[in-house]
Amino acid sequence: MSAGNSEDKPNLRSIASLAGVSHMTVSRVLNDHPNIRPETREKVLRVVEELNYQRNSAARALATRRSRRIGVIVDRPVEIGPDSTLRAVEHAAREAGYSVSSVAASPDDDGVRPREAVAYLTAHGIDALCVIAPRASSVDVLRELTDGLPTLIVKADDDPNFLTASVDQRLGATLAVQHLMDLGHREIAHVAGPLDWLDARARERGWHAHLKKAGLHIPPAFVGDWSADSGYEFAVAFDELPPFTAIFAANDQMALGILHGFRDRGIRVPEDVSVVGFDDLSVSRHFLPTLTTVRQDFHALGTLAVEILVAALEGGGTERRSRIAPELIVRESTAGPRTM
């Protein structure tokens, strides 16, 4: 799939830049979407006329056959992050004049397999596909099934087969570890998510790489399952102070379980062990202590995913890989290390 058009021909992005609007707004104007302010419509159409922009005949023919529907596959949508991204995709798609059909997929025996999910969505005439919270095993299957279908995977790494969009997971892990190092911590453990999940793998690699770069000890990561229960299981395994002074947990839910488990064991946070999470769930500021975490902007991520797919469908130039920077949110669960 082409990543963009030649620079000498006008496209959605060049029109958007001159009109001072997003290329999704340009798309909505060109497709006669009703919810456009008259002054915005007039401004966009003026630029279209000035640039003498025309969709080529193949694109016009394709448009007459399109369903204006984006299919979305979500691995394990019960998790808060994927569900939040799905809601953002649905909102952004509506704004761009597209509908969304979504399927929850899981490689587990009792779930819908990725192959079945793709078959279901393509049977409903989708124009493009977005995959949220993918596992490595799911992406491998998708390579066989989506040839010719514009497909975006929400993942951090570049991919020769797909468009990609993500929050920069490795940068988020680096921010978390660097914060702990700045406080003086030198023994930093990691409670990872399931490592078949691409986001969990990227966060684990970011933690590992930053410790290695600093010349610090790298303990084995404990692999949880994203749940607070798995964080609790990790924490209550210690009958006395653990051999580390800080933990980077791969999501806020596992961090919550860690706080609970340490409390039951009489281990104080942050006096004995500092804890950093990942996601910045709305409830994280109400944990006791309030949780230092890495914020992911799920709304921006969902909007970006739709922008890329709409540009790919409607002739706007687009990058094959786009990333959003995360943000460190410092609260009460981190402090300087105890004396070892």
TrEMBL record:
<dbReference type="GO" id="GO:0000976">
    <property type="term" value="F:transcription cis-regulatory region binding"/>
</dbReference>
<feature type="domain" description="HTH lacI-type">
    <location>
        <begin position="10"/>
        <end position="64"/>
    </location>
</feature>
<keyword id="KW-0238">DNA-binding</keyword>
<keyword id="KW-0804">Transcription</keyword>
<keyword id="KW-0805">Transcription regulation</keyword>
<protein>
    <submittedName>
        <fullName>LacI family DNA-binding transcriptional regulator</fullName>
    </submittedName>
</protein>
<dbReference type="InterPro" id="IPR010982">
    <property type="entry name" value="Lambda_DNA-bd_dom_sf"/>
</dbReference>
<dbReference type="InterPro" id="IPR000843">
    <property type="entry name" value="HTH_LacI"/>
</dbReference>
<dbReference type="GO" id="GO:0003700">
    <property type="term" value="F:DNA-binding transcription factor activity"/>
</dbReference>
<dbReference type="InterPro" id="IPR046335">
    <property type="entry name" value="LacI/GalR-like_sensor"/>
</dbReference>
<dbReference type="Pfam" id="PF13377">
    <property type="entry name" value="Peripla_BP_3"/>
</dbReference>
<dbReference type="InterPro" id="IPR028082">
    <property type="entry name" value="Peripla_BP_I"/>
</dbReference>
<dbReference type="Pfam" id="PF00356">
    <property type="entry name" value="LacI"/>
</dbReference>
